[in-house]
Amino acid sequence: MRKLILQMQLSIDGFAAAGNGNGSWMVWNYGDNWTWDTALQAYHTTLMASADEILLSRKMAEEGFISHWENMAANTANPQSVFAGHIRDARKVVFTHTLQASRWPNTILAQGDLVTEVNTRKQQPGDNILVFGGVAFVSALIAARLIDEYHLIINPTAIGNGMPIFDQLQGMLGLSLIKATAYPCGIVVLQYRYTD
């Protein structure tokens, strides 16, 4: 069965975004200048290459995730173009109850029950499946115990309040540490496996 892997940046106090959605507190907030150190960049690019499918919320798709990374993939002078090309080439699955047709290339819609749709994707042949967000979508996946591995990119910043991703849990979530890696830019990547 394919693994569903969450990769998400968090503040040191556990928020995926500030209350207004702002990500300026991140060491790299997905802009043109890739401010992560080269070792962290290599980890990210390798993880992207391990997947052939990406799950997205409708909101994230409509806010420009797909077009942003397509444009970045086309800019071969930028080191982000390599992992952006993996995003472009991966099948995107947009979860929605309102859209009737996909308007993005290499993208399909998932319109049914979340658990059924995700488990169906996991049963299909292929490589890993990645999910990045949005926050409410990731929270629902976590609450349903659908994520197999967590790759949490902990930024060296506390923001005090914001949007958490574990707030919909009912009961304890058991995780087993796979790896913890500190990077020169101040980020620590914590990799956990779901154990419940």
TrEMBL record:
Stored Pfam families: RibD_C
Keywords of this entry: Membrane, Transmembrane, Transmembrane helix
Domain Bacterial bifunctional deaminase-reductase C-terminal: 2-189
InterPro entries documented for this protein: DHFR-like_dom_sf (IPR024072), RibDG_C (IPR002734), Riboflavin_Biosynth_HTPR (IPR050765)
Transmembrane segments: 129-147
Designated name of the protein: Dihydrofolate reductase family protein
Species assigned in the record: Chitinophaga qingshengii
